[in-house]
Amino acid sequence: GEDVEQSLFLSVREGDSSVINCTYTDSSSTYLYWYKQEPGAGLQLLTYIFSNMDMKQDQRLTVLLNKKDKHLSLRIADTQTGDSAIYFCAETNNQGGKLIFGQGTELSVKP
Amino acid sequence: EAQVTQNPRYLITVTGKKLTVTCSQNMNHEYMSWYRQDPGLGLRQIYYSMNVEVTDKGDVPEGYKVSRKEKRNFPLILESPSPNQTSLYFCASSLRRAATDTQYFGPGTRLTVL
To answer: Which one of A40, A43, A92 has the shortest CB-CB distance to B99?
Structure first.
């Protein structure tokens, strides 16, 4: 079935780059997303990538997709304390609608 | 401001006491859904609605009901809550059911069932 896996924790120093990894199993995944959840808040869409792309850059965020290995990563350059949050990887197929989420990676940024 | 609102934000109740969590969006979105978030499991879809009077089960629908009488509202009903429904609940909406349409999430409702 559909499954999305992420490591649960990542700790980095302010100013370093953070790389959050995600693997998925569904071959029919069409769009892959990264959401950010700050404490006490809902989920905010950070970025997404279509399955026929292998890279997308948006300011400090770089998304890399290896479709062969079903591996997605989110790189945050020059990580700031305000980036501390839980980051969720999610995927959906052509139909859209239902998102399949990973467990979330808690990013802790130390000054 | 475009948003998805949920009420209440926090709720503590007892087993068997019926409750409703409301969800409302002001973006004229057709597609709405409910998710629950549990530690180590991410978010899982409970129910979804393609439009008014059109609802269907998600991955974990047992113990829940929904209704969609108006486009803007999509309440989640727990007829007889049990402790295993203690969770963080999120409502989401998008313009249509399409992978290209951004899903907007509400702030969440933390439910504890004793």
So the answer is: A92
φ, ψ of residue A83 to 5 degrees: the values are: -85, -10
Reading the block at residue B64, the tokens are 């829940």
CB distance A101–B4 less than 8 Å?
A: no
Q: How far is CA B29 from CA A25, A100, B1, B78, B88, in A?
A: 30, 20, 14, 24, 23
Residues counted in chain A: 111
Close Cβ partners of B52 (under 8 Å, ≥ 6 residues apart): B68, B69, B70, B71
The two three-digit tokens of residue A67, written as one number: 């479709």
pLDDT of residue B82: 97
**pLDDT tens-digit series, residues A35-79:** 999 988 889 999 999 888 889 999 999 999 998 899 999 999 999
Q: Do A96 and B98 touch (CB under 8 A)?
A: yes
Residue A92: list chain B partners with CB under 8 A.
99
Three-state secondary structure readout of B70-114:
CCCECCEEECCCCHHHCEEEEEEEECCCCCCCCCEECCCEEEEEC
Q: How far is B65 from chain A (nearest CA, A)?
A: 17
pLDDT of A14 reads: 97
Cross-chain residue pair A103–B40, CB shorter than 8 Å: yes
Q: Which of A106, A101, A103, A100 is nearest to A86 (CA)?
A: A106
Residues B10, B26: Cα–Cα separation, whole Å: 22
What is the C-alpha separation between A54 and B112, in angstroms, rounded?
A: 42
